[in-house]
Write a structure and sequence with these properties.
Number of domains: 2
Number of strands: 4
Order of helices and strands: EHHHEHEHEH
Radius of gyration: 19 Å
Strand content: 15-25%
Helix content: 40-55%
Distance between the termini: 18 Å
Strand order of the largest sheet: 1-2-3-4
Shape: elongated
Length: 140
């Protein structure tokens, strides 16, 4: 795949993404009971554990889907220098990520538009508002 994977997160990249879910009172009560009885540290710990367990249960199907879709797994950080090199070479890149796609904050919108043909992110995309707006028709 194009680009470089990083072992460390770029500065300013959040460790987690906040989501909101709606639960029925009984389901929430069950979670609170398990937390109160010491099975989980808090509601978030319970929900994270449940999600990981379900993801593990479907790991084989997910692996096949990742390969079929050509997704990079984990963190994909795109730098200004990388995009400048892509444009200089007369190419465009496709960014396909399951995890976090991060476009450096110093990337101008015009450069992103010239270098990135499309973005598919299953997870989160972090980029400046200008870059997101410039690529809005290319984000899937």
């Amino acid at each position: 795949m194009d680009g470089k994977w990083m072992d460390q997160r770029p500065k300013g990249v959040a460790e987690t993404e906040k989501i909101t879910i709606n639960l029925g009172h009984v389901d929430l009560g069950h979670i609170d009971l398990l937390v109160k009885d010491g099975f989980y540290a808090n509601r978030t710990d319970f929900i994270r554990t449940a999600i990981r367990n379900l993801a593990d249960r479907h790991a084989d199907a997910a692996r096949h889907s990742i390969m079929r879709r050509g997704l990079d797994l984990g963190l994909r950080h795109v730098t200004r220098a990388e995009l400048e090199a892509v444009v200089e070479a007369g190419r465009m890149i496709e960014i396909r990520v399951l995890g976090l796609a991060s476009i450096a904050m110093d990337v101008p919108a015009e450069l992103a538009r010239a270098a990135i043909a499309g973005i598919t992110v299953m997870g989160a995309l972090q980029a400046s508002a200008a870059v997101k707006a410039a690529l809005a028709d290319r984000i899937r």
